[in-house]
Design brief:
Blueprint: H1 11-19, H2 21-35, H3 42-55, H4 59-71, H5 76-85, H6 87-90, H7 92-106
Length: about 110
């Protein structure tokens, strides 16, 4: 994510990366370091990040992690299962909202 990928970032993240590349580089390096800090697979890390985005009620992050999950070969049904798993700890309304945010991406034309 470091370096030249700044132009590919959507919205506010892309704006920050363009205006403050050193901050974005540090942020990207932190992401790489946390990914390398344990034994989770890339797939597991993506699903965990999706779950955290759901827990934070961050529609943009849910979109981002869903989009990235699809591009990494994670099936849409698996992304949706993460939203279903949120029913117990987060409640039905938040889980349903997350499911619609995931659908925004999985049902794009």
């Amino acid at each position: 994510m470091a370096g030249g990928n700044n132009k590919e970032l959507p919205g506010a993240a892309g704006d920050l990366a363009q205006k403050h590349p050193a901050i974005w580089e540090a942020y990207a390096a932190l992401g790489e370091a946390t990914a390398d800090a344990g034994g989770l697979t890339a797939r597991e890390r993506r699903l965990v990040k999706l779950a955290l985005a759901i827990g934070a009620s961050s529609e943009g992050a849910v979109h981002s992690h869903s989009r990235r999950g699809l591009s990494e070969g994670i099936a849409a049904v698996d992304l949706h299962q993460v939203a279903l798993l949120a029913i117990g700890p987060l409640g039905l309304p938040r889980a349903v909202a997350a499911g619609t945010w995931i659908s925004d991406v999985t049902e794009e034309k």
